[in-house]
Amino acid sequence: MANERGAKSTLKQIKTVIDSWIKLLSSKKIICNRKMKLQNASKSPDIPATEYEWFDLNENVPFEDALELTKCKLVAEMVEDRLRQAKGLLQCREVLIPCNLTMRIAKNVLKMSENEPCGLRGCVIYINLEEKNVCTRLGKVACDSETVSTFEITLNLRQDLSRWLNIRRLLPEKLLKKLGQDKEIVISEAYTLCKKKLYRSNSS
């Protein structure tokens, strides 16, 4: 009898120890899960590099923001197309444009058109390129050809000579002569915008 009681007591102790271990492990698992959730919640989402990506990924963008982005995209595309078409005028094989340059320009243009009577639709952009102390008119962009222009913006771009000079140093002189008009023009990230109104306001 004594042996049976001793065995039962031992089994009871073992069961108690097992139960306590199970509770301890369960509590640790819960704490661990909570920590993981807090860590995941505290992590900020990866912000896309460009506004295009942000617009594509964020489904809850207000309509005004989406409309503004659409306008910027259209202006950026028109400016970029005009620069691509200037290859013949510049006698070069390709015009290289820095990433997001035209989008930055478009955002500035949109900001400058906020208080205009026709907004962006009344804007005409004249594009110039400063190259070796010579300013060349590359063309113009009418944001809306069916709207009378109420103001114009002159966009002055610059050639990035530092990159072209670095390329020249790597090429033999004979090859440079053979290239001739096949050179590439690299546009600098620096630019200026000058606004001119084409009407008189009542206050003036």
Automatic annotation (TrEMBL):
Gene Ontology terms: biological process: apoptotic process; negative regulation of signal transduction; regulation of TOR signaling
Family per record: Belongs to the DDIT4 family.
Keyword flag Cytoplasm: yes
Full protein name: DNA damage-inducible transcript 4-like protein
Subcellular location: Cytoplasm
GO cellular component assignments: cytoplasm
Pfam families xref list: RTP801_C
Cell cycle is among the record's keywords: no
Main location: cytoplasm
Keywords: Cytoplasm
Organism in which the protein naturally occurs: Hadrurus spadix
